[in-house]
Amino acid sequence: MATTEITEAGFEQTLTENDIVFVDFWAGWCGPCKQFAPVYEEVSGEHPDVVFGKVDTEAERGLASAANITSIPTLMAFRDQVLVFAQPGAINASQLQELVTAVKSLDMDEVREKLAGNQNPDQN
After folding, report:
1. Active site positions, annotated
2. Model confidence, pTM
3. Residue 71 CB: number of other CB atoms within 10 A?
4. Structurally, how many domains does the chain consist of?
5. Which domain holds residue 19?
6. Low-confidence ranges of the chain (pLDDT < 70)
7. For residue 34, what is the domain's CATH number?
8. What does R_g of the chain's alpha carbons equal in angstroms?
9. Which residues sit opposite 23 in a β-bridge?
C-alpha cells in the first residue's frame, strides 16, 4: 500500500478502521522530511497490512497542534487506536522496518495494562 494523505477530518476514522497506522508529520519546506519521504514510501510498499499516512503540517495545522508536533518530521505509530511510538527526526529504512516489526509484535493487552498502571499509580 502506498502512503495516504491524512487530514484532520479523516484522522480518527483512519485510526478506528485500521489495526496499525503509522503517521509521518511533515512539511514541504523541511529538508529532512524530503529525505525521509522515499524511505517511508518504500517501506510502506512492503507492509500492505499497515496504513502509512502522511500529515502535511502546513495544511493541517489543527491536527499538528492536537498531536503536539513541535519538530518535523515526526513519526507516530498507533496500534488498536493506542499511540505506541512517537519520535521526531528522520530514520533510515532498516530502522523503520524494525519499528514496523516491533509494532506488529506488540502484546496489546500488556500495553493497555501498562497504560492503565501509569494512569492509576495508586493501584500498583
Report:
1. 30, 33
2. 0.91
3. 11
4. 1
5. 4-123
6. 1, 119-124
7. 3.40.30.10
8. 15
9. 53, 76
